[in-house]
Amino acid sequence: MLKTLGKQVKEFRRASILTPLFMVLEVIMETLIPLLMASIIDRGVQEGDMKHIVLMGVGMIGLALVGLFAGIMGGVYGSRASTGFARNLREAMYNNIQTFSFSNIDKFSTAGLVTRLTTDVSNIQNAYQMLLRMCFRAPASLLFAMIMAFTISPRLTSVYLIAVVVLGAILALIIFFATRYFTQVFQKYDDMNASVQENVSAIRVVKAYVREKHEKDKFGRASKNIYNMFVKAEKIIALNNPVMQFTVYGCILAISWIGAHMIISETLTTGALMSLLTYCMNILMSLMMLSMIFVMMSMSTASMRRVAEVLEERADIVNPEQPLTEVPDGSIVFSDVSFRYQKASENTSAEEVHPVLEHINLNIRSGETIGIIGGTGSSKSSLVNLISRLYDVTEGEVLVGGNNVKCYDLETLRNQVAVVLQKNVLFRGTIYDNLRWGDPDATEEECQRACRLACADDFIRSFPEGYNTMIEQGGTNVSGGQRQRLCIARALLKKPKILILDDSTSAVDTATDAKIRQALREEIPGTTKLIIAQRINSVSHADRILVLDNGRIDGIGTHDELLENNAIYRDVYESQTSGSGDFDQTGGEL
User: Fold this and answer.
1) Between β-strands 357-364 and 429-430, what pairing exists: parallel, antiparallel or unpaired?
2) Tally of CB atoms within 10 A around 525
3) What is the C-alpha to C-alpha distance for residues 570 and 559, in angstroms, rounded to an integer?
4) Alpha helices in 524-589 (DSSP H)
């Protein structure tokens, strides 16, 4: 874990080295100042030597200025190193997430990834800055102060040692109990972020069903859990101050009492006693800083582990050593394909993980139009996701253009397989910006042609700004049907050899659906088209129709052949033509 995170220091290594050096220099200056102060009292004040007082005073000013400079530079370099480290962590995490396959992404919730990129990285940033500054400053201050105190009076320094042992034991107990709560609290952040994300993304549904109070209560519970955990931890940490104050004032009283007797017996000077009192404060404050360092490090350990998990996650789907960089055609072959979402682990065998696709054998010619129908959960989307290697097969193989998809360069393969997924997503920007996700170099004329094919041109031109209309995040300022047609146009701009429409016309009326199907058939006849749908009339025109039932092929053929030979298809057709339902209603139980 530490090795993984340490790699992200990168160009900030110099700042990370200079920070502790400046902090140690500051401590040295602070340690020398009490010696000059003692000299002023013992030789200057008591002997009336004004020249010595001035000389030592100038020396103290010089040491203070050097210490001030060192402290400022330590802060500057510490901030530069910690913020740069945090930037590199976020960038490395984000870049690694971009390489994830769908199976990798399934391991982390969206809210969890957001928490790791924000809250967890901020915790690590604060801990790293404290590590560079306080983790060097506190031990150095403690060590130098103890050395100087022993040099002045070993007898009085023994008081420090007793206090250090007692205080160290108490602080260890405080840290032990506090860290148990801090370890748990960051796990609660995911729950709260998930609540916020779900509420904001589905705010229209929340308001439509008047569920604001329910959502407020749910967020309140998540927030209260974090509050309660922090309160428990902070109550324990709050004991630091009274324990520290008691120890500090106890040491001051003991040293003053013993020191006064030593001054009377002339075994200690007044200046030396003043220095010892200063070193006493340095030692005990250093202990307090160390305790806070341990608490902060304990808090950040959970965050470091969570960030390291993302950085160490390796994509399940990668390029082969010598990838193919050209897809010959749009032919597709499924050869005895089986697929499971969850891989077998130490606690589960491969047989215990239920397959969502079993023994799929299918041969699709280039340019052919294939309709795919089936009830909810019949694994229609899972089947087409294997074509562009969004997932990899568990058994068997998928061939595109005569080659196993695992032999292709991922970018090459996915550029030739355009997918319009069930959940259509648009990004903040103009309509042109969104369309050019399909082809960054597409001209305005090409964008408009793709929109005409997708029956999107008319409604786009009805907007005051036309194709320069701004789309809000998620496409919330256009209807579901408009969003689907824009996504189809975006996919067409890729000029793919394979086009997959995953229930992507469900939100448009049947007339528009028919126009889109006709345009695709006439304008891109050489492109292999896979159309997933719930409505029979959306696939009835297809060259062949595939009926899926519980991850298996129940039938394949033309519309007329399936009506004659496939009971499931016939039942659903009759239920839909009679107006009584579709695949997920009575008559089409899959």
Assistant:
1) unpaired
2) 10
3) 10
4) 559-565, 567-577
Give the pLDDT score at 186.
63
What is the amino acid identity at position 521? R
Tens-place pLDDT, residues 525-574: 889 999 998 888 888 888 999 998 888 898 999 999 999 888 888 888 88
**Token duo for residue 303:** 């965050």
Classify residue 566 by its DSSP letter.
-
* The total number of residues written for the chain in this structure: 590
Based on DSSP, count helices (H) and strands (E) in the chain, helices before strands: 20, 12
Nearest to 8 by CA among 214, 223, 308: 308
Q: What is the mean pLDDT of residues 101-124?
A: 80
Residue 439 tokens read as 């082809």
> Which structure tokens are listed for 409?
């360069």
For 455, the token pair is 């029956």
DSSP string, 345-380: -SSS-GGGS--SEEEEEEEE-TT-EEEEE--TTS-H
Assess contact for 435 and 422: CB atoms under 8 A: no
324 three-state secondary structure:
strand
Q: What type of residue sits at position 545? A: I
Token readout for 359 is 């023994």
| Gap between the Cα atoms of 378 and 164, Å rounded | 68
Q: Are 416 and 498 in contact (CB under 8 A)?
A: yes
Tens digits of residue pLDDT in 249-260: 787 788 788 888
Amino acid at 559: H
Q: What does each C-alpha distance from 289 to 232, 244, 579 come to in angstroms?
A: 21, 11, 75
Residue 526: name the closest of 489, 493, 556, 499 by CA. 499
pTM for the complete prediction? Answer: 0.67
Give the bridge partners for 420, in sequence order. Answer: 501
Please provide the average confidence, as pLDDT, over all residues in the chain.
82
Q: Is 7 helix (H, G, I), strand (E, B) or coil?
A: helix
